Amino acid sequence: MVNLLQFDRAGLGDFCEQLGEKRFRATQLFRWIHQRGERDPAAMTDLAKSLREKLAGSAVIDALPVASEQVAADGTIKWLFDVGGGDAIETVFIPEADRGTLCISSQAGCAVNCRFCSTGHQGFSRNLTTAEIVAQLWHAEFTLRRRLGLAEGERAITNVVMMGMGEPLQNYAALLPSLRTMLDDHGYGLSRRRVTVSTSGVVPMIERLRDDCPVALAVSLHAPDDALRDELVPLNRKYPIAELLSACRGYLARAPRDFITLEYCMLDGVNDSPAQAAALLALVRGDGGADSGLACKINLIPFNPFPESGLRRSSPERVSAFAAVLQEGGIVTTVRKTRGDDIAAACGQLAGEVRDRTRVAERTVRAVPVRIERGPGRRDSRRTGAPAAAPTRSTS
Ligand code: SAH
Ligand code: SF4
Question: Quick one: how far is CA 138 from the chain centroid?
Fold first, then answer.
């Protein structure tokens, strides 16, 4: 049986052709699935009877089994979906007065292994399929429509952020049809500005996304220089900051907005000093000369702790001082409100249940301890050859 959630509309057209039906029928079928939430082909009354019969024998609309649902005091909802094989992924709905945002996962676990991220700490199990990515939206949209008593045509989810578990640009093949389904006027009809891909900086895939399906882009920077970013976001060793910013500048040529959002997780004593704010300002303003800098907005995310991180959240005073340096330098800077942290649904707290097939966390934690030094005067151990101080997991 084929799961129809795996297809964007073009893919569904191919599938209809394989069944010996006209391609255009896919549009009707797509609307039943993604606009009306229908799972039973027999109920799709305006579809040709021949197609309904063929679908009944060959296809399913297979949503993900819900392992649990938790509702936070602020109305945030977190679903845990069972994706089989001992893996479970999380999806978070964040209600606000004027919008409903869904934070979607792209992988079971994550191989990037950022030091401050609970998903990364779990290691990596596997990529999600397009059907599993889209099923998160399908479930949330139609569950909430029923629950909120929305009329047909009214939408529960107005914005999607690919900021759940996983690195979406390391699962590009499955991501692309998912994005197309979200944007499709016969699907969820979300505008490109309201769908955000967040990445730790997979440079070649930023370029692909620009050409294939430019949506809003958020880049997880977290450090103003390569020495520190190498440690916090290990992917930086492959794609250092200058290359990353260059890819971002290239992305802007086709982006739906005229800026890139830079995310910066505020870690006490690690990346939150006024000097580091000044270095970040110089970096994005392009004080390095021509072909540098970036049109951006900066989103500071107070670190959301999780057990074993060994890291602490920056104080509100420290965050404000950091933001002030950037704002005074002319960069629009916001501080992300923490939502749903009483149910561990905040940024970086999504761990699901992951069978780590790569044992990536175990291997890299042993190999590359994170330095945490307080105050100015942090040495670059790569350059000086000095041993790294204070492994993350021995400080707390
Ligand atoms: N892999 C992608 C998207 C998922 S993470 C990426 O890294 O961009 C979504 C955002 O949450 C990223 O900006 C990430 O850096 C941030 N994040 C991860 N762990 C966090 C934590 N413990 N506290 C606050 N933000 C965190
Ligand atoms: Fe992966 Fe993003 Fe977490 Fe880094 S922050 S480990 S890229 S999910």
Answer: 17
